[in-house]
Amino acid sequence: MKKVRVTFYPTGEAVEAERGKTLLEIAKEAGIFIASICGGDGICGRCRVIIKGGEVEAAPTTLLTREEVQRGYTLACQTKVLGDVEVLIPPESRAEGAQILIDEDAQRFRALYAASEEEALFRHDPLVKKLYLELPPPSLQDNLADQERLYREIRRYIPALPMQTGLKVLQSLPKLLRASGWKVTVTLGRRGGTVELIQVEPGDRAGQNFGLAVDVGTSTVVAHLVDLSTSRTIDAEACYNSQMPFGEEVTRRIIYAEREGLKPLNEAIVGDINNLISALISRNKAELSDVTALCCAGNTTMLHFLLGLDPTRIRKSPYIPAATAPPPVRAAEVGIKINPRGLLYTMPSIGSWVGGDTTAGILATGLYQTRRLTMFIDIGTNGEIVLGNRDWLLTCSTSAGPAFEGSGVKCGMKASRGAIERVEISPDGYLRYKTIGDAKPKGLCGSGLIDAVAGLFAAGYIDRSGQLLPDSSPRVRERDGQLEFVLVPAGRTETGKEIVLTQRDIENLLRAKAAIFAGAKILLKSMGLDFQDIEQLLIAGGFGNYLDREKAIMIGLIPDIPLERVRFVGNTSIIGAKMALLSEEAYARAYEISKSVTYYDLITYPYYYDEFISAKFLPHTDLSLFPTVTKRLGLEARV
Amino acid sequence: MKKVRVTFYPTGEAVEAERGKTLLEIAKEAGIFIASICGGDGICGRCRVIIKGGEVEAAPTTLLTREEVQRGYTLACQTKVLGDVEVLIPPESRAEGAQILIDEDAQRFRALYAASEEEALFRHDPLVKKLYLELPPPSLQDNLADQERLYREIRRYIPALPMQTGLKVLQSLPKLLRASGWKVTVTLGRRGGTVELIQVEPGDRAGQNFGLAVDVGTSTVVAHLVDLSTSRTIDAEACYNSQMPFGEEVTRRIIYAEREGLKPLNEAIVGDINNLISALISRNKAELSDVTALCCAGNTTMLHFLLGLDPTRIRKSPYIPAATAPPPVRAAEVGIKINPRGLLYTMPSIGSWVGGDTTAGILATGLYQTRRLTMFIDIGTNGEIVLGNRDWLLTCSTSAGPAFEGSGVKCGMKASRGAIERVEISPDGYLRYKTIGDAKPKGLCGSGLIDAVAGLFAAGYIDRSGQLLPDSSPRVRERDGQLEFVLVPAGRTETGKEIVLTQRDIENLLRAKAAIFAGAKILLKSMGLDFQDIEQLLIAGGFGNYLDREKAIMIGLIPDIPLERVRFVGNTSIIGAKMALLSEEAYARAYEISKSVTYYDLITYPYYYDEFISAKFLPHTDLSLFPTVTKRLGLEARV
């Protein structure tokens, strides 16, 4: 095979590649990020690059304008390299912040969903679907009324459920059917036991049907725009939850709502989702009226805020939500701006503190049907833990705080461009790091924080209680009355300010990891099981793509089990929400899951606090729980 | 048994009666009208009379105030006569206009519904029901969410169907449940395959649930206020349909809607229903918010106008309505003022010209389950005819015009106080009549018109084509270029104007009866049957309570069959609507009926016009169809 040389700008990184491969394949192999959601099918149009020189062969595409093609634009996935080539990756296709994670979640979903389609797990059957129908015009022999004629045709596709039509739609029917020559597209939404005829449009618009899967996180809100007719993810967008000023943790926000009412919190999250939708719509030149559904996953309280349901009793004994499985409502009724008759679905919650995001996670990972004893940990502002297999499932929630999402940490940031996502401290004290997008460092995201604390611990700069040891390293210093560790000096950062890890940051992380570990331990204990019984440990979360399993074990965030049993599964909240959005079967399954999982309320568990305190040590007070860490770091000797 | 003497004022009519009987029983036996809906159960409070003197024994009642009792008021049905008594029937309890018919329809319903309850035909299970629930308060052991806790309790009563709750109701739930001490009344409405939780009220309000059955007639609108918790008819009210100025017949109004839009027609009928509701509510001191449902029957076009559906294609080939079975909608969406979340149901139609009123009629008469070959004729502005039995049913509609409802006739009037409802002309030309309420005559209602024409025909004042014969009677005269017959001279009428029957009036009646008879004949013919095969002939209509079957046969309105086979069944439209309102089973049965009846479109039947022309003669061109009339009046000899 003949080799060619491909140089990627603006970095100027040059790689050798096989002639005939696509630019996207070559970039991927070289670890150079080019945005892509569809995985190389030439559909998402995200992998736009500019050919600066050299011989390529590009398949025709409608995703670029004539003008753009003239300016050298091409889709990396549709462009084969025939000789040496120079390529510019324009800013919009570069690794930009949270975009990387989102794109990877989109691809992760694609892999999962495709796999499940092969196995016929969930039929592609969106909660809101469009059907193009050609009706036989009425005659004296076939004189069925307009509504009944339409129903007859719909019944060929959806035979079983009762139909319901809104009065406005019914009123518009006679004129519309005739003006369209009896060729119409109906939009059908699933509402409880009924199929609602939401909309009738003239002509064939079956291909113009979009939906949104939304992960309503306590700290971060992520939205994926999905083509409901093909199940493709078109684009994705994320933002911080604007409720942050009302409190970083769920409990604080509930207290705020108790005092000031839930309106500001409701408006904040509705505004966030509307902003995400509006960005996705304008960027992809879609019509808002073609967005007919959204499916939201989130913890129970976030879903309450979203729907305007009073969450104040969630935090007071006996901890009762207004609803765990709210009905689908018209999105407009909540203030979400999509098609005015479009529907808003929420993933059903399991209990007051284990929400629809966990249900989505169980759905997305197939936890409900695995034979192997599995532990699932969704690391976010809350850490939800699920234990079990296809026969039984047990769940609890722990309050981790926002440290893993880069909040509550002095130099913390979201997992976006410039965030340090990996840290290595070699035995001789030399520190290396890697940032997202290989940009100049701006701060520390969740995975970087885990790495950093693990590194400090391994290097002996902090003791088992997490205390920085003043004389252990020249990087340890005191500022404003507390110790801190300098990760990156000011001259090397994007902002010109140094990036440090404070004693308080470390304590925040230890509290977070201790909360999760204690929860995991109690779940196991309640079933008379041990960490070594776990056959599969799934780590979910939007806190960073990269998770060094070894370091997560080292700090005692996850149990000391063989690495091959640990798998990072990404943002399962949005993956599960998307599955439900795209399949009524999946949505129905989510409901069954939410009803069948046993909810274990740690607040009522008397020994939780003891377990939490024990888990605040590195890796744990009880070293016998972490034999490999103990051995590797020689902890028995370190007192 | 000791006899006593009871004198009723203001007429002074005195009757002998058995001691111990109630005043209502005594009045009924004597043919003296006292208003009553409940049939003597002491519930409706309508039969208020004033004891002027004599010994009575009255059961205590809450329906009269202390002050009223002191003034001598008592309920006629709860008052036993112990000696000679003088009683004043106050104006509100006297026979007032349409009230008589309404009261009788209410009693007719009561008889039918009671009968069917005994036979367990339709379970009492209103379309919208209230349930009083006492929920177990949540605890750590029973920590179900509020909505799910409520559903669990509702499921004890309604196990099968999926539930749906509006967002507003769900939002109000947490506060309301706690404020009420977990004792609430839920309002549940049936919508397609779903049960909607319409409303939650604190405390026990299960007894405060009212509905309306409405007959949306082309000429007359009748509403019954029903206690949904007990199935009692509380009160009734009627008015002319305000769409009259847009055309007396359905077709004229459709043409108006084509030209000017359907809004004025929609507003007219909605306004009528609102006026009826408001009168019923204020008279019975009920709360509008406790009216949770209404069920409307009417012809297909009237239901279109009510729901704001375009009816213009109903009158143009191939005659297609917008919908035959419109879904239940929120009454407020149509502009009907009841509880803002209350539901409006319509009886499903059979075809373009056979509406929900006929479906209601089939339901009310049990026609769908009779073994006997039955013909059902609903005489109104349209004459709908149904033929069949439990194995098959065939229906058609004929355009009779409003003559039977007192419209389109010079001295015609609604069947209300002062309307001549019976006319007898003796062979010597002596004319006797009876008015509703025995008041001074004001005009002629439908049944009086039939009697009068039959009388003129029998006396030989009109010939077989309905022409008045100038010299046959001194009462026949010419005015304004046409012949007319003087029924009541000016001095004896309420208005001081004479009551006459014009040549045009007679022709209108003949057209109306010919239309109906022709339709009946064609239905029979299409099945290879004859009039003599009819085992049961049911005549429905709100056109008058009294129908002289013999005279209806004499003019050829109904076929010449033995009188004992003919039965007047009242306003079956409202009776059927009420059955559906009070029983989901009945509503479901109505839907099945509407789907199973074969609709026969006379407009497409080539010989209809010939049949119509033949039927315009008295009693018919073909005398062999009317053997007893022919024999009795010696028609063979009369040329």
Features:
homodimer, 639 residues, alpha/beta, Ubiquitin-like (UB roll), Nucleotidyltransferase, domain 5, 6-stranded mixed sheet, 17 helices, 26% strand
Structure, described:
The structure is a homodimer of 639-residue chains. Chain A is an alpha/beta fold. Among the domains of chain A are: 3-94, Ubiquitin-like (UB roll); 128-202, Ubiquitin-like (UB roll) (Roll), CATH 3.10.20.880; 359-402 and 510-633, Nucleotidyltransferase, domain 5 (2-Layer Sandwich); 412-502, no CATH class. The first copy, chain A, is 30% helix and 26% strand. Chain A is built from 17 helices and 27 strands. Chain A has a 6-stranded mixed β-sheet, with helices on both faces. In chain A, strands 26-25-16-17-18-27 form a 6-stranded mixed β-sheet, with helices on both faces. A 5-stranded mixed β-sheet of chain A has the order 2-1-5-3-4. In chain A, strand 19 and strand 20 (431-435) form a beta hairpin. In chain A, helix 7 packs across helix 8 (300-307), helix 10 crosses helix 14 and helix 14 crosses helix 15 (584-596). The N and C termini of chain A lie far apart (59 Å). Residues 114-120 of chain A have low confidence and may be disordered. The interface between A and B is large, with 51 and 51 residues.
